Amino acid sequence: MFTQLASPSLSRSTLSLPKDLFAAIAQLKRELNAVILAHYYQEPDIQDIADYIGDSLGLSQQAASTQAEVIVFAGVHFMAETAKILNPDKLVLLPDLEAGCSLADSCPPAEFAKFKAAYPDHLVISYINCTAEIKAMSDIICTSSNAVQLVRQVPENQPIIFAPDRNLGRYVIQQTGREMVLWQGSCMVHETFSEKKMVQLQIQHPDAEAIAHPECEPAILRHASYIGSTTALLNYIQQSQKTAFIVATEPGIIHQMQKVAPHKHFIPAPPLNNCACNECPHMRLNTLEKLYLAMKNRTPEITLPEGIQAAALRPIQRMLAMSALLQ
Ligand code: 13P
Ligand code: SF4
């Protein structure tokens, strides 16, 4: 298969890249006893070579149960970090260590510690899109697929801080009727969609159903017939009688949507400007070439201070246990 060079900075090292990267990665996977876990926002080639593709909850569950010795995480830093927290003795590789997350960055640990101190009797529920330091300060971790149900499991009289995503937090408040103190963080990608353009698109495609990720702003969510995590959106388009969808999340998921429902039509929700800013610049830093090189060189590796690792593990385990009760 023809593989394009990812960036000029890779051009020298790519001279020694094998012609068939797919075969070379499969070979390295056997040699390392590795598993490749990928998020839906990764480029199509990476999704196609992954052993498992999923949303943040599914990826955490896979990381928690894998027998592989090496975890190659094709996603962003907080996801690979979660895999490392769950597997402190395993080698966890992230193809590009710069693959961060604007939402995780919107919650700096020192400021969050002060915020938390102002609400000493509150339980802290943090969305998994945060750093290990924030997880270590949290009581329960949640994802977009279980946030509503986990909040419902908390006793009524227990006040809650929800961090870091204000949009998911507002959505959970709306769904549960629970008051929560929200940290005012957000995702640069999910805040890029234009309500005006979305409505215009709905007028142009009256038969299309709008679906959205809960990280979107309320102005977008109110036009959506269905709101859910990436996996939930993928399941929804298969079950729906509709054959066209306006998809308000990172368009990487459309690769899987087209694979599972080739006869259906998927229209990416339009960003405010005529840009590609609905694509996550962090997720897209990973390429097939970098994934191959990470496996070949066994680096870049995710490492964590021991104290943070242990403290961050508890709220993740709590989420996994509470989610298992929901199944
Ligand atoms: P999910 O895939 O868990 O819905 O999360 C979306 C996201 O923004 C990941 O960063
Ligand atoms: Fe973070 Fe948003 Fe990218 Fe998801 S889409 S990784 S929340 S910046």
Write structural notes for this entry:
With 327 residues, the protein is α/β, with parallel strands linked by helices. The chain has 3 domains: 21-99 and 282-310, Rossmann fold (3-Layer(aba) Sandwich); 103-188 and 311-326, Rossmann fold; 195-268, Rossmann fold, CATH 3.40.50.10800. The protein is 42% helix and 14% strand. The chain has 15 helices and 12 strands. The strands form 3 sheets. A 4-stranded parallel β-sheet has the order 2-1-3-4, with helices on both faces. A 4-stranded parallel β-sheet has the order 6-5-7-8. It starts with 20 loop residues before the first helix and ends with a helix. It binds 1,3-dihydroxyacetonephosphate and iron/sulfur cluster.
Please give a quick description of this structure.
The protein has helices at residues 21-32, 44-49, 56-65, 77-86, 102-105, 109-117, 132-136, 147-152, 166-176, 195-204, 218-221, 230-239, 253-260, 288-297, 306-326; strands at residues 34-39, 52-54, 70-74, 91-93, 123-127, 140-142, 160-163, 181-182, 209-212, 226-227, 244-248, 265-268. By secondary structure, the protein is of the alpha/beta class. The strands form three sheets. The chain has a four-stranded parallel sheet with strand order 2-1-3-4, sandwiched between helices. Strands 6-5-7-8 form a four-stranded parallel sheet. A four-stranded parallel sheet has the order 10-9-11-12, with helices on both faces.
Instruction: Give the cofactors and ligands.
Output: 1,3-dihydroxyacetonephosphate, iron/sulfur cluster
Return the CATH architecture of the largest domain. 3-Layer(aba) Sandwich
**Count of structural domains:** 3
Return Rg in Å. 20 Å
Give the structural class: alpha/beta
- Return residue spans where pLDDT drops below 50 for at least 5 consecutive residues: 1-14
**Sequence of secondary-structure elements:** HEHEHEHEHHEHEHEHEHEHEHEHEHH
Distance N terminus to C terminus?
40 Å
Instruction: Count all strands and give the number.
Output: 12
Please identify the top-level CATH class of the largest domain: Alpha Beta
Our estimate of the beta-strand percent is 5-15%
Largest sheet: spatial strand order: 2-1-3-4
**CATH fold call of the largest domain:** Rossmann fold
The chain-level mean pLDDT equals: 94
Largest sheet: 4 strands, parallel
**How would you describe the shape?**
globular
Instruction: Assign the CATH superfamily of the largest domain.
Output: NadA-like
- Helicity level, as a percent range? 40-55%
